[in-house]
Design brief:
alpha+beta, 35 strands, about 20% strand, RNA-binding
Length: about 900
RNA sequence: GCCCGAAUGGUGGAAUGGUAGACACGAGGGACUUAAAAUCCCUUGGCCAUAUCGGCUGUAUGGGUUCGAGUCCCAUUUCGGGCACCA
């Protein structure tokens, strides 16, 4: 029998399917293990060779855990809501569900072709009402909750209402949009509408009117993680800031817990760091500045450098600050208005690119609470309204932004740190000895910066000037999208008051066109009878993409449950995801939202773990190798890469399928696009050589390699092994089909250990010591490598072992049986085939047991060690494997070469690593 | 600007502080063959060499710790990623 993947692979997969091999149920007799891939958005382009990288590695891990006796949950599904299907619907009128269904079918075929061990009985789709019922359910739970900072958890809003009725806001510490103070009497006197407004300030899912990222091209608002450098992450359309009523999730309430939780999970440092940056905790103080001649007002500011108060030479308000209007004096009114309108036209993007210093004096003065000095209050857009209090104290000597502002407007600069040179730039470092910092009640001179920070904090708390305060950069997530293809938000409006719609699922209605209404309302405004049975209008916005992916990992545990998101039994057994594999691009989106969502459900005891994903592996991207042809400008002549420098050329990307080893298939190119049909070619050595570059793999770059083609030519096992062999999982690397032959050759060599033509080579012979050594080296290496997610080195270890066993002409059934079990997670089809045909076993190889490692087979009685000296010849000495410092000395001297070299010298020190290397100091 | 991470042959990449370059690709040479494909064997960091013994050098750069450093420490350069008028 020859190795023939086309015969083996479909047959083996069919057998798995018939046996329902990957179906998994709760089984208390076995330990559980939950391996999850980030589920894909089924795009029209299908999978390219980069996508399966993560799927293959998680599949290897799942199969390995299974062989080790774990009950492995390894599910898959589809993140089915998304913009491309909707854009396609707008263009063609085809319902996004139809497109989605087609794409899902294509994905399924492609995934199956790779031989992944998913339990498809548990498949979920976010657009399925049975699934999004629970997305909506969680949203309503959040709507009905507030965050109690004393209990440090989410609590029902009813508790809050009770509390307000009894004692108002007194003693309440809760996450809120703005600080509120009222008494029980005031609360009880409020009408329904007023109470609703108050509660909105506390709800974890709330309707808020604030600055949002509005993308006119997409016709919707976007969350912060969906915007990068002023343009949308999807499509790259400009995004502007707009004041709008939108649904939000109060993610900020969980900022501290999201930060603390990072210390308890096994994620890469880089992704934890990214999340820490995104959460952006800063510890400082809030301080009150009185205003000159105005007893009715104080200015609240936030600073992380309370030690620098004596260096404050001016104050700055954000243009959107509520103080702007109050502090503008009549004389300055005109100048301020002019300034405000001038910056209104600058978009966030423009402000980011062009960081010129602008600002205007308000006319008012504030009083420095520590020095008693009078300082002017300015207005400038370098201060952000949304962070801290929207007002700052400016210390130009020790803050670069304040420094630039002071220089530009010629404001004084007072250095506060000894020997700090502030003639050219500010001194921002938090180090040095304080000077110029003496006031009537507090003297910081002579202290170090950290000491000064601590003393100032203590002083302002004691004197009531301010209080210690922690700020987070993490913003609440905008939760509504003016789009059709998403989960309806289950809220209706009763007399204008947002009210839960509890009859879930609230199904997405049919509409005639997938566009906003003529009056500019979201597409759901086109739905007929979009209201409750009582006639109350339903919300027109839908949920964002991250809604469905925030808790999907819980649903896999119990996907067909109609009564609950997940049953107590299922959550009690599966608990959390043990291993999560996916791209690092979700660091500030999905991976934050999921953690938030999970913590929220945890607060109510619906689930049992505070963190959703115990271990996270971020697979790198596989880039494409793009090929270029070079057209001489203004002609239809293409010049080969080696000669292009002689001409003025434009590079053009051509499909990678027309290029072999950088040589272009000219006839294919002629047939590709009309413009090339009659092109002239300038060749070198009779060939057209293409240029190349490494770029993201995508359709538009014409560099996509389809896994189906690789499977067709080499088989799924070769594809799997090769993708793993390319390099470390977490690293990005370019795809290069060249090396794949090596892996394919390995499988054939492996096959030839079992079969020579029709002759079966496996015999019931006793394994030799050599055989066992080769095998157990492999067991040790592969087991350790899989645990460390180091698959490229395990594939190398297989290659070495198979070469050794081939050389040894190993025929031992026990060795060859263990070998194929070890390989099974990596190359499941060929392993399963040999398990049956060559080894004659019944039942799947995946019901076998992972071979146990035995150290004894690797032990040596003697070991040869290299002795080397600076510049002197090396020689080998052979000693007992367990030699220590004492025995080695004698051995060395009894060794002829060593004795010769050591002639006349004495050994001062001998360093031995048992079984390894020795170094002798003379 | 701040915070992470990385830098090893022609290429992808191996190396618990212990013989750097595993394994694979590519390249060169050879065997088999009428020929080709396939397969197999040898060589393959650089320099020197009496080219079969062997020597020197070498992991971005400069220092340091150590008997011993690709690995640990300090500084520098370059690249990748994150955050960014966040006070």
């Amino acid at each position: 029998m020859e190795y023939n993947h086309k015969d083996i692979e479909p047959r083996v997969r069919q057998a798995w399917q018939n046996a329902e091999l990957y179906k998994v149920e709760i089984d208390h007799s076995k330990p559980k293990y939950y391996v999850l891939d980030m589920f894909p958005y089924p795009s029209g382009a299908g999978l390219h060779v980069g996508h399966p990288l993560g799927y293959i590695s998680s599949d290897i891990f799942s199969r390995y855990k299974r062989l080790q006796g774990f009950n492995v949950l390894h599910p898959m599904g589809y993140d089915a809501y998304g913009l491309p299907a909707e854009q396609y619907a707008i263009q063609t009128g085809q319902h996004p569900e139809v497109t989605t269904r087609e794409n899902v079918a294509r994905y399924r075929t492609q995934l199956d072709n790779i031989g992944l061990s998913f339990d498809w009985n548990r498949e979920i789709r976010t657009c399925d009402p049975e699934f999004y019922k629970w997305t909506q359910w969680a949203f309503l739970k959040m709507f009905g909750s507030y965050y109690d900072l004393d209990a440090d958890r989410a609590m029902p809003v009813e508790e809050l209402e009770k509390r307000f009725a009894e004692k108002g806001t007194q003693g309440l510490r809760a996450a809120a949009g703005k600080d509120m103070e009222f008494t029980a009497e005031e609360w009880n006197a409020m009408d329904k509408k007023e109470r609703n407004d108050v509660l909105m300030n506390y709800r974890l899912a709330y309707l808020g009117n604030s600055m949002v990222n509005w993308c006119p091209a997409l016709g919707t608002v976007l969350a912060n993680d969906e915007v990068s450098e002023g343009v949308s992450v999807r499509g790259g359309h400009p995004v502007e800031q707009k004041q709008m009523w939108q649904w939000f999730l109060r993610v900020s309430a969980y900022a501290e817990r999201l930060l603390q939780g990072l210390d308890r999970i096994d994620w890469s440092d880089s992704i934890k760091e990214t999340q820490r940056n995104w959460i952006g905790k800063s510890e400082g103080a809030e301080m009150k500045f009185r205003l000159d001649g105005r007893d009715d007002l104080v200015l609240d500011i936030f600073t992380t450098r309370p030690d620098t108060v004596f260096g404050v030479t001016f104050m700055v308000l954000a243009p959107e600050s509520k103080y702007v209007d109050m502090l503008t004096t009549p004389e300055q009114r005109e100048a301020v208005n002019e300034y405000l309108s001038s910056i209104k036209h600058r978009t966030e993007r423009e402000r980011m690119i062009d960081k010129r210093v602008t600002g205007v004096f308000s006319g008012s003065y504030a009083i420095n609470p520590l020095s008693g000095k009078k300082v002017p209050v300015w207005i400038s857009d370098y201060v952000l309204a949304g962070y801290g209090t929207g007002a700052i104290m400016a210390v130009p000597a020790h803050d670069s932004r304040d420094y630039a502002f002071a220089r530009h407007f010629n404001l004084p600069i007072i250095p506060l740190i000894k020997d700090a040179d502030v003639s050219e730039a500010s001194f921002d470092a938090k180090e040095g000895i304080m000077i110029n910092s003496e006031g009537p009640e507090l003297n910081l001179n002579g202290l170090t910066v950290p000491q000064a920070i601590a003393s100032t904090k203590e002083f302002i708390e004691k004197s009531g000037i301010g209080k210690v305060k922690v700020n987070y950069r993490l913003r609440d997530a905008i939760f509504s999208r003016q789009r059709y293809w998403g989960e309806p938000i289950p809220v209706c409006y009763v007399d204008g008051i947002p009210t839960p719609y509890n009859n879930l699922p609230l199904e997405l209605p049919e509409i005639d066109k997938y566009l906003p209404t003529e009056t500019g309302e979201p597409p759901l405004g086109r739905a007929k009878n979009w209201c409750t049975p009582e006639g109350y209008p339903l919300e027109l916005n839908t949920m964002p993409g991250f809604a469905g992916s925030s808790a999907y990992y819980l649903r896999y545990m119990d996907p067909r449950n109609h009564e609950a998101l997940v049953s107590p039994e299922a959550i009690g057994y599966w608990r959390q995801v043990d291993l999560y594999v996916g791209g690092s691009e979700h660091a500030t989106g999905h991976l934050i939202y999921s953690r938030f969502w999970n913590k929220f459900l945890f607060d109510y005891g619906y689930i049992v773990e505070d963190e959703p994903f115990r271990k996270l592996i971020n697979q790198g991207m596989i880039q494409g190798r793009t090929s270029f042809v070079y057209r001489i400008k203004d002609t239809n002549t293409l010049v080969s890469a080696g000669l292009k420098d002689n001409y003025d050329t434009t590079p053009i990307r051509v499909p990678i399928s027309m290029v072999t080893d950088d040589v272009l298939d000219i006839e294919q190119l002629r047939g590709w696009q009309k413009e090339f049909a009659n092109a002239e070619f300038i060749l070198e050595d009779g060939k057209y050589i293409c240029g190349s570059a490494v770029e993201k793999m995508s359709k538009s770059m014409h560099n996509v390699v389809n896994p189906d083609d690789i499977v067709e030519r080499y088989g799924a096992d070769t594809l799997r092994l090769y993708e793993m062999f390319l390099g470390p999982i977490e690293q990005s690397k370019p795809w290069d089909t060249h090396g794949i032959d090596g892996v394919n050759r390995f499988i054939k060599k492996l096959w030839n250990l079992y079969w020579r033509g029709e002759e079966l080579l496996v015999k019931d012979t006793e394994p030799t010591a050599e055989n066992l050594k080769s095998l157990h080296k492999l067991i040790k290496k592969v087991s350790a490598d899989i645990e460390a997610f180091s698959f490229n080195t395990s594939v190398a270890a297989f290659m070495i072992c198979v070469n050794e066993l081939a050389q040894q002409k190993c025929t031992s059934r026990t060795v060859l049986s263990d070998l194929i079990i070890l390989l099974a997670p990596f190359a499941p089809h060929v392993a399963e085939e040999l398990w049956h045909t060559a080894l004659g076993n019944e039942g799947s190889i995946f019901n076998a047991k992972w071979p146990e490692f035995n150290e004894d087979y690797l032990k040596e009685s003697t070991v040869t060690m290299a002795v080397s000296f600076n510049g002197k010849p090396r020689f080998n000495i052979t000693v007992a494997a367990d030699a220590d410092n004492k025995t080695i000395e004698e051995t060395a001297l009894s060794n002829e070469a060593a004795a010769k070299w050591l002639d006349g010298k004495t050994i001062r020190k001998v360093i031995v690593v048992p079984g390894k290397i020795v170094n002798v100091v003379v």
